Structure formats: C-alpha cells, structure tokens
C-alpha cells in the first residue's frame, strides 16, 4: 500500500528534519539560533521525498523553541511543503504570536489555506493522521 519505508533524519541544528508515518508526514523541528538558510538547505531533500510519494504528504513544523522570527521568513512561503503538487496540510506547533502573524501573512500572500496551528504535537499529529486517512477513502 505504501512505498518502500524510508527513515530519513537530518539533524542540522537548529533544524531537525524527519520523515514519519511511512512517508506521510514530514517533521521539521526548529530551534534558535535559526536562520532561513537552514530550511532552504533542506529543500532538495524535502522535494525529493515529495517527488517519489504517490500521495499527499503533510508537514508538521515545531516552533516551540524558536524565540525570534528570522530575517527572510516570508521566503518560506515557496517551500516544497507548500508549493509541491504532493503537499498536503501544514500543522504548526507553538511559536510566538508574532511568528504566527508572520506565518499567516505568508500563507495569505500565496493563497495557501491548508495551514493549521496547534498547541501540542499530539493534536497536530492526530489532525495530520486523520488527513492522511481521508486520502485513502
């Protein structure tokens, strides 16, 4: 039913990237001191994963340990988890009110309406697992 299971984990502090749930979910954990280039450096890995999946792939982004919004944050609106044809929902955990405002603006600019905000990783994962399950119906 699923493509061959893969386990990719890249821990390039301050960014940790993992593929979860048999490739259905990309997990990105961001901590200080984060700069947007940390994310941009992972675009090829993320895009390669999305390219080979025959289903929508959802993304969970944990901002709980990020204190400052990095310069160039609006550049993230063109990232593979948002712009790729296989991209699904983006679940964002934590982050400051300012970070949330910046993210909301970025998504409004792109017309992207598949972002949801959560206060816990359990709630975010439950939402994304349900979204994945709905794909199969």
Question: Can you describe what's shown?
Answer:
- With 137 residues, this protein is α/β, with parallel strands linked by helices.
- It has one domain (9-135): STAS domain (Transcription Regulator spoIIAA).
- The protein has 5 helices and 6 strands, in the order βββααβαβαβα.
- It has helices spanning 36-40, 43-52, 80-83, 97-110, 121-135, and strands at 9-12, 15-20, 25-31, 57-65, 87-93, 115-118.
- Strands 1-2-3-4-5-6 form a 6-stranded mixed β-sheet.
- α4 (97-110) links the parallel β5 (87-93) and β6.
- The longest helix has 15 residues, at 121-135.
- The protein is globular, with a radius of gyration of 14 Å.
- Mean pLDDT is 86; it is low at 1-6.
In short:
The chain is an alpha/beta fold and 137 residues long. Helices cover 35% and strands 27% of the residues. Residues 1-6 have low confidence and may be disordered.
């Amino acid at each position: 039913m699923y493509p061959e299971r893969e386990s990719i984990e890249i821990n390039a502090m301050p960014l940790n990237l993992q593929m979860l749930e048999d490739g259905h979910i990309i997990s990105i954990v961001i901590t200080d001191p984060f700069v947007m280039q940390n994310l941009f450096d992972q675009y090829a890995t993320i895009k390669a994963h999305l390219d080979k999946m025959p289903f929508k792939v959802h993304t969970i982004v944990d901002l709980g340990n990020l204190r400052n919004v990095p310069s160039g944050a609006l550049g993230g609106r063109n990232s593979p988890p948002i712009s790729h044809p296989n991209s699904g929902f983006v679940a964002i955990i934590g982050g400051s009110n300012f970070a949330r405002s910046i993210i909301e603006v970025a998504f409004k600019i792109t017309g992207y309406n598949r972002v949801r905000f959560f206060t816990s990783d359990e709630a975010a994962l439950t939402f994304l697992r349900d979204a994945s399950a709905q794909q199969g119906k």
